Amino acid sequence: MISPERSPSQSPRSPAAAAGAPFLSISVTDPVKMGTGVQAYISYRVITKTNLPEFEGPEKIVIRRYSDFEWLHDRLAERYKGIFIPPLPEKNAVEKFRFSKEFIELRRQALDMFVNRIASHPELKQSEVLRVFLQADEEKMDRARSYETGIFKRPADFLQMFKSKVSDVVLGKEKPVEESTPEYEKLKNYIFELENHLAEAQKQAYRLVKRHRELGQSLAEFGKAIKLLGACEGDMMEKVFSEVGSKSEMLSIKLQREADNLLFNFEEPLKDYVRAVQSIKATMMDRANAFRQHFDLDQERKYKELNLEKLKFMNPEKYAEAESEFRELKADSEEATKKFEHIVRLMNEELARFQEQKTADIGLAFHEFAKGQAKLAKDIADAWRSILPKLEACSTS
């Protein structure tokens, strides 16, 4: 049994318009398998409701597939350096699970959260690519998706560039230049520790889900076995053992339901924040690249400035040309510095927003976990307690 319901705080939707207040509400619904074989994929209905004037109307319904969501993510990552782009669910899945109801619902939920986080972000929600994603018909969306812009298209490209930089350092072609302020070092340490701890918590949550399902299955099989044993014995024992078997089967269903609850409302939110940390690390890579460019151009500017002073006295004929080149270099250096400072400012704002949202979401996930476990424990205790008198009577008769 799949239980896809979530708390509103896990899907940050804008409320319906109250007294004409601006709102943007998006739902990713109705996953449908399209095609066959290796060409098969899942399509989704994306429903947008809004009163914002930049949109075409109050409601729009479009059909999207995973690659369309990926296009939106990558275009935002290209255009909004310094902002933590909400994470997508993993693209690949084990083939035999790729079209299971559970996997499809988990992905639908994650895609819904992805696009609503964008719609609730003060800058990302104003993006033209978001409006294209939410409003373009399928043909226009296909054209937009096929028209790639920018040098880098995927996080893997950033990783490859990083590996190239590392190779250059190892081979002695380039010395590593990294930002090393105490504040930034503290941030990096925190992000890597957070990633490790979240990943470990998610792994243990997965084991809890698995354990609940295994125990539920064992109780179901135990219930059947006890009923058969009672039928073999007959008389009073048959009736009592039948009730024990029924209680076991009933508790099996409750355990399976709680396993689904744990999966959707506990493990998956933890997994989502593991992905969110990957988004932060991608932004940190953007920051590192911006810092290197700022540093390299600033060093080159200082070097050219010294040479310019020498040329002024030693080679006046070349001075005018060198001065023109220096002005261009200085402008580039100032622009690189502004870009780096802009990314730093945005990251500080994003971190504050991330911490606030993380506290709310993770707090809710653990609240749902504790509430579910408390109810399950009570149900189990009540079930076994209810048949204790009958078992006691049977053992003393």
Question: How would you sum up this structure, described in words?
Answer:
71% of the residues lie in helices and 7% in strands. It has helices at residues 66-79, 101-120, 128-135, 138-146, 155-170, 182-233, 235-314, 316-396, and strands at 24-34, 41-50, 59-65. Helix 6 (182-233) runs antiparallel to helix 7 (235-314) and helix 7 (235-314) packs antiparallel against helix 8 (316-396). Mean pLDDT is 86; it is low at 5-17 and 149-167. It is mostly helical and 397 residues long. Strands 1-2-3 form a three-stranded antiparallel sheet.
**Helix and strand element order:** EEEHHHHHHHH
What structural category do the secondary elements indicate? mainly alpha
Based on Cα principal axes, name the global outline: elongated
What proportion of the residues is helical, as a percent range? Answer: over 70%
Largest sheet strand order = 1-2-3
The low-pLDDT segments are 5-17, 149-167
Radius of gyration: 29 Å
Q: What is the overall pLDDT average?
A: 86
Secondary structure tally: strands: 3
Which range does the strand content fall in?
Answer: 5-15%
Beginning-to-end CA distance, first to last residue = 41 Å
